[in-house]
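Deliverable D5.2: sample structural annotation.
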Amino acid sequence: MYDVIIIGGGIAGLSASVKLNQNNVKSCLLVEARDRLGGRMMTSAESGLDLGAQWIHGGVHANSLYNYAIKKGLLKEEKQIKDGGWDGELFYTSQGRVTDPESSKKAWEIYERIYNEAENYFRRDSYSDDYGNSIQTFYNMRSKEELEKLRLEDSSDSDYNFEDMKLILESLVLKFAGYLGDTFEEAGLSTYGTAIELPGGDVVLPKGTESIIEELHKESGPIRLNEKVSRVEWNKDGATIFIDKNPEEVLRAKHVICTVPLGVIQNNLITFQPSLGQAKENALANLRPGRISKIFLHFQEPFWLPGEGELAFAWSQQEMDEGRQKNDWTTSVPGMNEVDGHSNVLCMWVCGEAALQVDNLQENDILKGASLLLRKFTGDPEISTPNRITRHAWMKDPLCMGTWSYPSLHSKHEDYFELMKPLPSEDNPRLLLAGEHTHPTYWSFMHGARLSGIEQAEKIIKFVEQKQLLQYNL
């Protein structure tokens, strides 16, 4: 019997394994269903592109992952930051027109103001019934209010193009959705900002997120790959783990940390006997696993210069609505951006139901759609079709069933605290959950996943130490 079995070899599972190993919990085994470690942190061996998680969000020392990357020498002395703020980015319309620069900048300022309000909404003493806890309603109402306010304040000699500003604010819904991890329809306003966004920008890892995984692997305990867990039977004394490919093989442990993604649990690809209990099941059901498709487009001959490969598409609300009705995935693409260190590559993001559609498309269909988008929005019919793509279809992946999680209309901040509670009790931690979907402060972030694994491991370490002390005193 093992002291601890960790299910899942992503950053949460590996961080838990390292923590246990450093604290002399030697009888610890990590089982991973894939033939590799890292989960949704996956760097392409061929291109060096990060197909899943991409940046350390928050280059400050309040970020444990940032500190770890520095300690392991994974960051250059002059760290590379991806700036998410206004950088002169232009917006292109579907008629191949560039929007008015001053109006574009003002629209972006309004967008950032509304986004910041949404992030801080949970801090309010009371919530407005006008929004119905919906980020979608909040954004739409606040956009209209801000435009109307500007109209009233605006002098007659202003150069603002209000039609362009309206168009841009409508289209920036897709950018907001891309950061959220899905379209707005089910996103909860009152819990959105509870994932604290640290300052310091998005830090680029020169050798990709796989470099983090490699370092954790060096310090972790024993690992078994290609071991897909199908069932966990637990009680007050420990747990029995059943392996999918060999139902007769079972693993036993005094403690289990389950770090599999939210989508895997929601689709019952791992079952728990007895169940996790109504409170945890409700908390899990309230969350959404995220739907984003991230696609790298490789061009034989780039049509942009370094620093000029940012294209934001200004879709009108009507175009997006009609696109959804026609199952046209291209109307859910907020834009494309150049990729650091890859002069011939653009990254394209697709949100929501359209992302699931794209994950099921053949490469040629995606290349065709992407090239039509570029020609349509730039007005240049001579832009060449990319010659290939690099991607991982996370929503089709049965070991993920989604991207990064977010709270729904029904979520409460207390749900995250509930998910971090051990079973059967805090005093007897036999079954614990971890992963980016469980951390109350940094849910959805890599550093949140890391901390969740460490914090759950610490509960087991504390339990073991107390038990040893009790036995010593006896």
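Annotation notes: The chain is about 35% helix and 20% strand. The mean pLDDT is 93.
The annotation will be released with the project's public dataset once the embargo ends.
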